[in-house]
Specification:
Layout (H helix, E strand, L loop, with lengths): L4 E5 L6 H18 L5 E5 L5 H7 L5 E5 L16 H6 L4 E4 L2 H6 L4 H13 L3 E6 L3 H5 L3 H10 L7 H4 L3 E4 L13 H19 L1 H6 L2 E4 L7 H5 L6 E4 L6 H8 L3
Parallel strand pairs: 1-2, 1-8, 2-3, 3-4, 4-5, 5-6, 6-7, 7-8
This protein binds phosphoenolpyruvate.
Amino acid sequence: MRKNIVAGNWKCNTNLQDGIELAKAVNKLVVETGDKKATVVLCPPFIHLTKVVELVDSKSVSVGAQNCGAEAKGAFTGEVSAEMVKSTGAGYVILGHSERREYYGETSEILNKKLALALANGLAPIYCCGEALETREAEKQNEWVKKQLDETVFNLTAEEFKKIVIAYEPIWAIGTGKTATTAQAQEMLAYIRQLIAAKFGNEIAEGTSILYGGSCNAKNAEELFSQPDIDGGLIGGASLKAGDFIQIINAF
Ligand code: PEP
């Protein structure tokens, strides 16, 4: 049975002190009121990772990074390697977020290197895909997403792919308050599952957690998560408020 997952992507928000307070608040709510139907993952900025790992109840809350370097180690000033992320106790890493692709030029080639290093270091990648508004308006979203998967995670072995979580995040829905309709999200996630089945077989497709991301919030999460192929969410803005985030976590 595949896991339901709700992952909070804090992006470049919260200083260390505020991040600690937010992680404590989410942890308390999950421990005291969480209905345990979903794996909860907090993805704070790199510098918060060690502290957040230390303060959460690891049985209730997991921790992930928002990125990792494309090289294992060496003279790459400012980079944080997959091994470093793993050494904090984090278990997940978001890769291929559209903001990384758009603002930091992350190509499939770079993402393949990051995926390999994340997997080699025992991190579970939360691999993001999704189309821009023009692509959706041209009704080319399926081809776009297929190409993103074909060029990256579909080159992994079946054993490697089993560790991947997919997050479909239409760019036009991220941080815009414009959520994909439940039907649009379900349709795309079912399509992605079909692609996984064609590549790796039904068992792996049925076991892969596929998340929706893009203005998912405390009000729309329940309807989105009621869909057969939506196994949870990658949550940006709404993960910065513990009260909203717990409602999303408990929306299954
Ligand atoms: C995200 O950036 O992963 C995201 C889904 O953001 P938001 O929830 O704010 O749209």
